[in-house]
Amino acid sequence: MHSKSKQKGKGIYGMRPPIHLVSATSESRAHTLPPQTDFSQAEPKRLNQHLVRIRFMLIALVVGYLMGRAVILDSLTPFALAGYAVSLNLRKGTSVWVGTGLLLGSISAMSAGANPLLLLAMLVSYRLLIYFFTRVDRIDVHAIPFLVFAVDAGFRIGFVLPTPHLTLYTVGMAVVDGILSFLLTLMFLQLPPLLSSARVQKQWQTDEVIGMVILLASLMTGLKGVSIHGISLEGVFARYLVVVFAAVGGAGIAGTVGIVTGVILSLGALTMSPLIGILGFAGVLAGMLREGKRFLIGIGFLVGSAILALYSSHPASAQQSLILSAIAVALFYITPKRMFEALARVTPGTTNHTLRQQEHVRRIKSMMTKRIEEVATVFSELGASFSSAVETPYRTQDVTDHAIEFTKSEICASCRRFERCWKREEEHTAADFKAALHQLTVDEELTLQNVPKELYSRCIKLERLLPALQRAEISSTREHTLLRQVRESRKLVASQLAGVGVIMRDLASEIEREEGASRKQESQIMAALAKLGLEVQGIDIVSLEEGKVEIEILEMHPSGHNECGKLVAPLLSEVLGETITVKKAEPSPDGSYQVVTLASAKRFQVSSGFASAAKDGTLQSGDFFNVVDVGNGRYALALSDGMGNGERAHSESSAAVTIVQQLLKAGFDESLAIKTVNSALLLRSDQEMYATLDLAVIDLYTAQTEFLKVGSVPSYIKQGKFVSALHGHSLPIGILSQIEVQTERIPLSEGDMVVFMSDGILEAVSHLQDPDHWIARQLERFDSDDPQIIADLLLESSVRAAGGLIKDDMTILCAKIETFKPEWATIHLPDLPTIRNRKGRARAKTPEPPRQLVQV
């Protein structure tokens, strides 16, 4: 009843809204009257809509007619109710025309075994069931196949129930028809969204292609008995369907389409005809010639169908089959090319399908890059706004001037000598106040005994003035300190925001980088692997930049013998002119395939060792260290000594090391990472907490090492028998809001060793005349080049020098630079193509003796 109120142009209860006549001037009419409809544009648009509806109606009618004629096994019609149920679920208006076509087709196929009365009863009953269920509640789409099965099997059994034809065979056939209707409904329910405009961009899966073929074969079954001058339309269109899919999808899809189509058509003929073999073999042969032109595909299909037709049929049947195949190939030749291109874009396994997927990936990458760049711009602009705010000077008085002004307004303003002191003798009075404030910094309190003589003789309200001046000085100092901290915090936030912006821009550039460097280069790698007898399913070149090579290989059914590490990586090393190793291998959950990532090998690697002892032999040390690969060919060593000992010190040192390494992994600059950790330690607690930090970031391509020291004891570099010390003079992190990060970049080479230690080692030998020299002499004396042995020997020597006492936490971290040696030698093959010019990476310079660190 109330549905009419929702119609366009109607009032609330289906009535037109009342029209009110209002007088208006000629000027107001121009603003109040609605714009006139342009009928010259509206009429063609409305006409096109009518034409689309008529075309859609005719298609629904034809599809229903063919499904109504489709009869298999002489009496089964499972396509009819399944098609009607899907059309009713899709659109009620469509189901009317589909149902009409079904009844007309069933009437025309009565001689073939169709039963129009049975079909009419099933359609009406199913429509009533759907109407009843939708009145009670919204019907679930998963229940539709079960309703189709119940109606189909139930009415078939009911129609023969009062007749003598009720036998076990008829009941079994009724159940079989219901099961087929159930399966067809499940399959057809996937097809409407597949064909709608909303799924144009979606590529078909193989099972969806088979479902479409079953639908088309079902419609072809309805063409049984329809011929023109003795030419069976059913046979022509079946062969045409196979040759089209041979051109689009290749041998695999064409063979499958041929077999499925042949089986369905054979069920309608009640005999297992040779059509199954003809369509399957001819489809495979034609699909194998897909890479050739359309002419070769047609020839291949004709040859394949002729071979089996002559072998399995009588001469007359073979001649008829060849004629049908020739007509189908002729139709294939005159089919527009754009139809094949449109079908190839959604069919898996085709070049167009692959290009479409790549284009889709490129669009997603472009969108992601744009969004990330926008967010990076936001962070950069936020950082710039904080920086500009920092550059603007604060309009505040100096601490002394502010204290004088405060005292002047509070005490002196109401004094009778104000005119004399602050008008006629202002300079002398201000000088006396400054002298008093200076005396306050010396004695920490102003009294009548230590107040300057000039102020004592000038002021008549010293008892009130001195406490007020002292309060003003304390207040001004606090305000100045707070403003300074805010300024420093803004500087840190500005640098952090700018750092995040840089990291996100780098991420955007990484995403924007073209995944497939070149199809030609991928083909060259595939050809090189083929020479070794290696077959891989796919190669994706992420980057061929020297030192940053990254190639992904899809390997089906991996054997577990590491062929990529033993054969593929050495071969790529020869082809690319640099050492390539397996970076990672990601197998699928079921083990059917794996994706192997091969990347440039670093020229250097780091081996490390450590030794540690807690104070007084306890279990918990306040020191914390870690060695980790932070990405981009960088390796980080970090050692931190927390304030004091025990759990609290360990918490501070571990927080410092962990946060720094996580920030380095994220791409932050080393100095900015340390400043961020400093702010984190300041904000973690209102109690005094600090930690020292030694950090070394090693470039694994050049061995260039950047050292950063914050409040730590000297570190050492051992180069053979030569040992040098690195000193730093900054305060530990967590004490001041603004710290000075000391850094120096030093070139290292193979065999060089970096030694970090906590202050417990230095304290153990503090009774010696020169502890630094003693440690350096010990390192020179050790003959081993094993970092673990060096750490153990140095700790043992320090404990012995301290008389066996451990007065503080003692930790030693050693790291040695080693040349990376690939596990397998390169594979040289004659006539092997070189993908890019071989340019050796610049070797590390001869190491120079380290210098004392300078402040930055």
Automatic annotation (TrEMBL):
Cite the residue spans of the region called Disordered. Answer: 837-856
> Zinc-finger as a keyword?
no
Q: EC number(s) in its UniProt entry?
A: 3.1.3.16
Recorded hits in SUPFAM superfamilies, A to Z, give: PP2C-like
Q: Which UniProt keywords apply?
A: Hydrolase, Membrane, Transmembrane, Transmembrane helix
- Where are its TM segments located? 54-73, 117-133, 139-159, 166-189, 209-228, 240-265, 271-288, 295-312, 318-335
- Residues in PPM-type phosphatase domain copies: 607-817
Recorded GO MF terms: protein serine/threonine phosphatase activity
One Pfam match: SpoIIE
Which PROSITE patterns does UniProt cross-reference here? PPM_2 (PS51746)
Database matches in Gene3D superfamilies: PPM-type phosphatase domain (3.60.40.10)
Query: Which superkingdom?
Result: Bacteria
- Spell out the InterPro entries in the cross-references: Bact_Sigma-Reg, PPM-type-like_dom_sf, PPM-type_phosphatase-like_dom, SpoII_E, SpoIIE_N
Q: Which residues form a coiled coil?
A: none
Report whether Hydrolase shows up as a keyword of the record. Answer: yes
- What protein am I looking at? Stage II sporulation protein E
